[in-house]
Amino acid sequence: MKTEDLSKVRIAVLGKVNVGKSALTVRYLTRRFIGEYRSNADLLYRQTVTINNSPLEVEIIDVSGETRDSFPSDQICWADGCIIVYSLIDKESFDYAVSTLQNLQRHRAVNNVPVMLLANKLDLEHLRQVRQK
């Protein structure tokens, strides 16, 4: 089956720099953990998965948080769903995630776009800066 014949879903992974967006994405795609990433560019990953005996092409854009002063509206408009990642050991990353969610609500009809807020680095609980409520 040709790639253009496949059903497709596009996911944008958003968040502040160093929260683990790339590590989560690569872990999903390869089942491997790689701890060191240095990226100041958006990265696009593709993988074909089978759901209910039908192939589905998954495209994931890992949106760099390196020098992001403005809301990544092009990447958001491209996506069918968004994952906003923050680190439990970085309070500023949580604030950034909340701000990103608020911006997303202003830029798109959230009712039509699945959004997931994902806490990362739970294994570093002893360094937690984001408190549970």
From TrEMBL:
Q: Which is a Pfam family this sequence falls into? A: Ras
Which molecular function term from Gene Ontology is one that the record holds?
Answer: G protein activity
| UniProt entry tagged with the keyword Nucleotide-binding | no
Q: What EC number(s) does its UniProt record assign?
A: 3.6.5.2
Task: Give the matching InterPro entries.
Answer: P-loop_NTPase (IPR027417), Ras-related_GTPase (IPR051065), Small_GTP-bd (IPR005225), Small_GTPase (IPR001806)
- Catalysis performed (reactions): GTP + H2O = GDP + phosphate + H(+)
Domain of life the protein comes from: Eukaryota
Is Protease set as a keyword in this record?
Answer: no
Q: What class of enzyme is it?
A: hydrolase
| Keywords of this entry | Hydrolase
Entries under NCBIfam families matching the protein:
small_GTP (TIGR00231)
Homology family:
Belongs to the small GTPase superfamily. Ras family.
What is the name of this protein?
small monomeric GTPase
Q: Which organism is it from?
A: Diaphorina citri (Asian citrus psyllid)
Q: Which gene encodes it?
A: LOC103517311
